[in-house]
Structures are given as structure tokens and as C-alpha cells.
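Record type: monomer structure entry
Structure origin: computed from sequence
Chain ID: A
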Amino acid sequence: FLRVAGDEFVAVELGQALSRHCPQIGSWRIYDAKEASAVSSDIVIVLWPDYPRLRQSAAKKVMWLQNGGWASRIPMLQEQFDVLFCASRLLCERVPEMVYLPVACTNPTLYRPCPSHPRFEAEVCFLGNYYREGRSGEHAARYMLPVTEFRFAIWGSGWDAADPPMLRRFYRGRLPITLGPVVHSSCQVFLSYHDLRHRQDDMPSGRVFDALACEAFVLSDHMPSLEALFSRYVVFTTGGEDLREKVRYFLAHPEERVAKVQGARSFILTHHTNTHRAKQIAHHLGLTWGEDVSGDHRIERAPVDGPASARFPGVRAGVHGLGEDVSLVRGQG
């Protein structure tokens, strides 16, 4: 569902962008992590650090670290990879050898404003998975319990065992990633609440980017790098009574919600898509970035049928042609 399918969408976006703009790349393919031993490419880009080691020694190995909680394993990752991109500016400042590369909107074609749907309507909604070590106890009480006095909906996995137990009453179930835009467009306030691992590493979630691409009103916990990117479009809260009062205020002032996100989608499309991230990756790897060559006869594009969430696990999609081969390994779980 969300996390795994999200990795797949990111891989497809990166692969397509690199193949369209980099003439050295003639083919690309997605591999599931369990297929790591079968990867045979000139460049391998890995999107999830907990995966089987690649056996191929000749490939340039690239990791894009996008999840919090891995700081202690960075020295090990540095040994395994030739290039280590990281979505946390804080961790990059601590480890200068890493290259700062923030997350982006998962897929701007998928994540866009759409009509509200009665099944998903809520005053406040949260979209994300429950982890006891990151979203429980006092932390969850501060950033989630205050909104339970409103029409609140929680979408994701694991919330049927949430602590505090009161949150279980607001759990609506799991969702495929393709319904994420409907959730964003059907709620009045989208609550962005990062788990402790992301907060400690200053590692923003890509769901904020996705919500803004849908022009959803976002109320988020404080995170320095997120505030640096989106202070114009996102309202931030310290939780507790501050959260409760801000939700109450913005529910009563829909015109201010609309005004806050005015231009947010355009900002995402201009600065924060995976095509922008692919360009940064290409430049750092010494690849030429040119005009879109998707119509060039050198490249025979394999069809990618239907939403990725309907095709995983073990899906393969690709572009085949001449030149270097790029593989992208996504997470599993």
C-alpha cells in the first residue's frame, strides 16, 4: 500500500525522467528488493536502505535515503554505496559526504485537485501508518488527540492497535495510493504529523508535497526544513491546545484556507517533482541532462498499464534502447 507503492511511483518518475533527458541512458527497469541479486546495470539507484546487498560489483551504486531513523547506519551505507543522497539537511550537515536531495511530490499527475467524495469527507484527516516506536504515547497525545473533538478520519495501516487507544475509534482503514488525492480533496484540514524518527532527523514526509499538489490545506507539526520550504503554504503547530485552536479557527474561516494554498500546486510543479530530483541526480553522477528525448526513435518505451498500486509486488516496467542501463530498487514490506 502507501509506502511501498509510493516507492514504486517515485522509481517510475525517476526512471522516466532520466531516460527522457539523459542521452547516455538507453534502458531502465524497476526491481523489487528481493531481486537485488539479479540486478545487472551500469547504475543502480536504491530507494530503501533495508534491502539485500547487491552482488554486482561493477555498477555505480546510489542510495537516496528518504526515511528517518537510519542515522546510526549511515557509515555502513557509505561503505555500500558510491553516492549517498539524503532527504535530511540536518544529517547532510553532520555528514558532509552525503548530498542533500529533499523528497518531492510522488506523482503530480496522480496528485492533483479532484472532486470531494462523501466516503472520505472529514473536517480533519490524517494519512499515514502507525508505528508504536514513533507514533504513540505522549507524542501522539499531543499531535492527534486534540483533533478527536472534530470529525476526524485516520487512513493508513496499524491504527487498530494504536496507543492511545482512543485513536482507534477514528481509524477508517487502509488505502491504495491512488485514493490519496481523493482523501486530500475531501477533507477540510489535512494533518501532517511526522513520527519521532522523521522529527529527530528533520526528514519531512513526501505526503506534505502530495497534499499541496492537491491544493489541500495542510496543518503540520514543526520541522525546520519543511518550514524553510513551505512557510508560505503550510500552517505549523506545536500541538496540544495550539493545534486544537488552529483547527477550530481554520474550520470557521474557509476563505483563509483557500488563500493559504493559493499557488501551492504551481510551486510544487515548478520546484518539487521527481523530474527536478532526477536532474539533480543526473548532474551529480556526471550524466548529460538535455531536452526531452521521449519521442526519439532510439528509445522504445514499454507500456506501463494502470496505476502502480494495482501492479505490485514484483512488478517490472521499463524503457529499452541503447546505451547505459539504470535500475531502481524499491523497498519491500
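Annotation 1: The longest helix spans residues 2-21.
Annotation 2: The CA atoms of residues 229 and 272 lie 10 Å apart.
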